[in-house]
Structures are given as C-alpha cells and as structure tokens.
Amino acid sequence: MVSVCAGGSPIFCSGAVVSLGLRATPALNLEIAMDHISQTEALYQHAKRRIPGGTQLLSKRPEMFAPDVWPAYYREARGCEVWDLDGRHYFDMTHNGVGSCLLGYADPDVTRAVTDRIQRGSMCTLNSPEEVKLADALCEIHPWAEQVRFARCGGEACAVAVRIARATTDRSVVAICGYHGWQDWYLAANLGAEDALRGHLLPGLAPLGVPRELRGTALTFTYGDRAGFEAILAEQGDRLAAVIMEPCRYRDPEPGYLDYIRDRAHQHGALLIFDEITIGWRLCHGGSHLRLGVAPDMAVFAKALGNGHPIGAVIGTKQAMDGAQNSFISSTYWTEGVGPTAALATIQKLKKENVTAHVARIGTLMQEAWRAVGKKHRLPVKVGEGYPCLAHFAFDHEQANALKTAFTTRMLRHGFLAGTAIYPTLAHTESIVAQYAEALDTVFAELASALDQGRVADLLEGPPAHQGFKRLL
Ligand SMILES: Cc1ncc(COP(=O)(O)O)c(C=O)c1O
Description:
The chain is α/β, with parallel strands linked by helices and 473 residues long. It has 13 helices and 18 strands. Bound molecules: pyridoxal-5'-phosphate (PLP).
C-alpha cells in the first residue's frame, strides 16, 4: 500500500490510483492530435540539415526521447511548465533542462537579479564584482576550499580543473570515473580501448577529432571497483595528476570508499577532483561531498548553480589551485556578470526554500507512483532504489526501449514531458505529481495490454528512441 498525499488527499490506495480534487492551474491538453506535422517538428526537420547533430546537446535531441514525436522546441518555460511552438502545454517530468533548473524555469527571484544586472550592463572592460562575492560564498559553504576559478559550462569547468591539476602536479595522466564533458582530455579515454567510456553515462562517445597522441593520458575506472583503481595506480601512479569522479550519483558509496580514493591518490602525489555538476545542490546545500564527509582537493559546479544561466565554478585548496597561477586559463565571457549574479540569487533561494527537502519529497512521490502503478498493471517496472532527487525507473524487459518510447509518446498526449527519469525542482508540486499519476495509470494500462498481446511495436508512432550517441543524417 502506498500512501502519498497531495494537499491531504491520498493519491494511491492499495495500489489503485484515485482521482484528486487538486489541480494545477492550466488544464491538461489531453489527447492532442499529433498526426499532422507541427511547427515544432517542421523546425527540427530544418535544423537537422542546418545544424550538424540537430541540437547543441545530445540529451536535447528529440531522438533521445521519441523520434518524430518529441517536441524539439519551446516557446515559453516557467516553473515546470513548458509551451511548445504550437502552443501545446506540458508539465516537465524529465530532467528539467538537463538538471540546470533546480528552482524551476524562469525563477522570479533569479530573473529579477539577472535583469537588474543586465540593465546596469552585464559586460564591461572592468570586472563584475559578483564573481568575488560568489567565490566567497562558495568558500563559506565549503570551508575546506580557499580559492575559486569560474567558467560558464560544466564540461568546460571540468577541463579547467584538470588543467589546473596537471599544472600543479606537472603530470599528465588523469584517472576518470563517470561523465565529465565532451573535451579532448576526457574523450582521450576512448583512444585507448574501443569504448573505455562505455558505462560512464553515455555509450558510444566517438574520439574522432581527438589527437591520437593523447592516448594513455586518460584512464577509466568503475565506481566502487578498488581493484580497477589499484591497477591504474600500479601502472601510472607516478604519472597521475588527478583522479576525477562524482562523489556519488544515485546512492551513497560504501563506507570509506571516498576516503580510500583520496588517500590512495595522495599517496601517489595526485589530486582528487569531485565533479558536483549534476548531484551538487540537490542532495544537500552545496556539494554532495559535504554530506558524505570527504573533502577533495578541488570540486566542480555548473548546471544548477546558475538555475538556467551559464556559470561553472572550480573550487579548491590554495595548494591544489597553485597551477592556475602559472597556466594560461582565460576567456572573455568568463567575466560577464549574469552568471555569478544568477548563482548568488540561486544559492540564496536554494537555502531559504530548503530545496533539497522539497525535491526529495517530490522524487519519493514519483518513485512510489512508478512502483504502485507498475504493480497494479503487472508491468515489468524496476524503480531505482537511489536518491529521490534523481529518481528513475526502467522497464525490465527485452522490449524495454520500445516500451520506453511508447511510454513517452503516450504521456505527451496527456500533456507530460516524460521519460524514465525525473530531476524534480522546487516548481513541482504534489498536485502535479497526482495528475501525472493519473496519466501514468492510463498509459501503463495501455503498455501492459500491448505487452500481453505481443503488440508493443504497434504503440510506436515513430522509430524507437536512440540509446546513445550516433550520427543523425
Ligand atoms: C557529472 C557531469 N559532469 C559534467 C557534465 C558536463 O556539463 P555540461 O553539459 O554543462 O558541459 C555533466 C553533464 O551532464 C555531468 O552530468
């Protein structure tokens, strides 16, 4: 039995979904006719010819959700509501701007601060004082850190951290666990083995265009695999500049694991960099390492830090950051004022609203909904046991990808952008989750019936979703 409450009304009773009195303001656009080519779709067809790869970020390719059906463009985004170019309204129950908008889209407080900065000029020959305030704020939240450098994007900030680590240690090799961006230093890992980065979030990352001479400069290990990490140390220990990894992604590490990595790295003269780009600010206020009680030498933030405005930060001890004094790390737009202004307003609001507690609650409701409704319809739904702030499920079935694609297209008809993961935001309410659960009940029933009758493929309205990086045209 699941007992989830929205404004006092139970959403589920004994696994059954019941109707709720509560509604979020805009009406759902149920059963939208999708048989014509919309403005949104037409623009994407054009874009695929004009822009190689169609979009600037793999995760925003409609093909990653539902080819030919997923709306590629938005006209307006507020809170967790989105309107596409054809005026269709959706609640965003996905990663909400790929994890960049933890307060929700167009948060009024962040927008006010940013607008004020823009009106007073956000670029100048002189520097923006907000970056110093932000550096102080980040060091206050992370008392082990003494210095800060800024960039604007996540992968870029990781590249800055790795450059600093290499400069400080005067060494080249980096041990990598997880995904850290598109840059040469990272994709160099795929020059060695066929797909060494497989399992580090995205399969099939091509190292084409990455100088072959970088082979052997980036070596991967799997989270929790001490033997794999020891093998890197044994072979490359005296050449190792840094270890870069997320402190955690979906669940806590086994006790002592992060201390072990840090201590072994230090014993070999290497620095430990924590990538907090996705998990940071969601699990606790600041980096997740604060909650896990392990201080690295450097930590990297981006995404949620600016709540939709580009800002990336590398924080570190004075000793670890020393290389930044000698290495040339410099860029014009790293000096503009919107990014740090947005970050200051975001940090303040994240704290004031106790956003980590809110997103944990919403994520838990989502996990409970998937579990209960999946069970009700006897669908092979496996809900990730991990942190609710990055809640996810999977179809545990050989036709998982077809089921996932069909799920997405059916949920669109009910007015929800939905995949198999949600990064909840402050804008998600229990009432919205309740509406989602009602749609889920209908859609899971359809999937279960199709599965029983062996006609899952008939549910597809286009090709199945892509499962990794591949060429589009
Ligand atoms: C852990 C982690 N590091 C780095 C990045 C790259 O950030 P960006 O896409 O802003 O370059 C991401 C993006 O998904 C990420 O999740």
